[in-house]
Specification:
This protein is α+β, with helices and mostly antiparallel strands. It has helices spanning 28-55, 91-103, 112-121, 125-135, and strands spanning 9-13, 16-20, 62-65, 72-74, 80-83. Helices cover 43% and strands 15% of the residues. The radius of gyration is 17 Å and the shape is elongated.
């Protein structure tokens, strides 16, 4: 029997949301991971660009990685990298972490001025930071 080919996608049904993954079962983990990374890239790109526009800064390339030690990073050139697992966090946490990295475009440190820039982007950032500190490590249970 041939495998059904098609894009991995979210489907809505009367039972709720589901992830439709076509193909052979051995390909399932890879297809799901690629889907999650693509979704993370899309969401983090939107959030990063919005925050960059608010601060009036330029950002470079945005990439998704499979990191354990960092949730995000900002290079001196303005390239941003994020962990795909941020997609598994609530939206306000993903948004805060995008703001956190974009704020480094003005301050490549964690000074008081840096945190003022973060607060400009996400006034209640401490709520997201608290969620992330308490629940973030558990996100590493997902994936390869």
């Amino acid at each position: 029997a041939g495998a059904i080919r098609g894009a991995t996608r979210i489907e809505h049904s009367t039972e709720g949301l589901g992830l439709l993954v076509h193909g052979a079962s051995v390909a399932l983990p890879g297809r799901v991971l690629r889907f999650l990374k693509a979704e993370a890239l899309a969401d983090l790109t939107v959030a990063s660009r919005r925050h960059a526009a608010t601060l009036g800064v330029a950002i470079g390339r945005i990439s998704i990685k499979d990191t354990v030690s960092r949730w995000g990073s900002c290079s001196s050139r303005g390239d941003l990298a994020y962990s795909w697992r941020l997609l598994l966090a609530p939206g306000f946490v993903l948004d805060y972490l995008a703001a956190h990295e974009v704020a480094h475009r003005l301050e490549m440190n964690h000074s008081a001025r840096y945190w003022r820039n973060v607060r400009t982007l996400v006034p209640d950032f401490r709520v997201a930071e608290d969620w992330h500190n308490r629940h973030g490590p558990a996100l590493h249970h997902y994936g390869p």
